[in-house]
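From the pipeline queue, job 12 of 40. The input is one protein chain; the requested action is below.

Action: predict structure.
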Amino acid sequence: MKDYDESTAFLGQWGRFQQVVFFLLCASIVPNGFGVFSVVFLTDIPRHHCLIPEENLTQDWRDAIIPIEVVNGKQEQSRCSRYRLDVVRNLSAQGFIPGRDVNLTELEQEGCVDGWSYSKDNYQSTIVSEVCVPI
């Protein structure tokens, strides 16, 4: 087996060209590292729920249109569904009050057909709130 120095002798000595290339490669690593590290701060998924379009709904129905789910022992608004907008609009127009006149668990649900509404409590924008679009 050959010696390492003998095997790499054809590359030449550690000259000016090798030094320039080495330090340029080292300098390019720093911005790449910051770019990868920034993903930690940009990819958090903010709290969100289905978007409620500007409809003629009472405030009671506007507050109740997103179903409540238990997640990790805590009650929070559903991230993926809402009560059907046409049904809620009809019940609101008839003057029914959610929870008193209407049992919300019996209402049909639909997905987030109009998109999502993202909380801006912690972040003004994230990759999720800027890039994700309704399907």
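Job complete. The radius of gyration is 29 Å.
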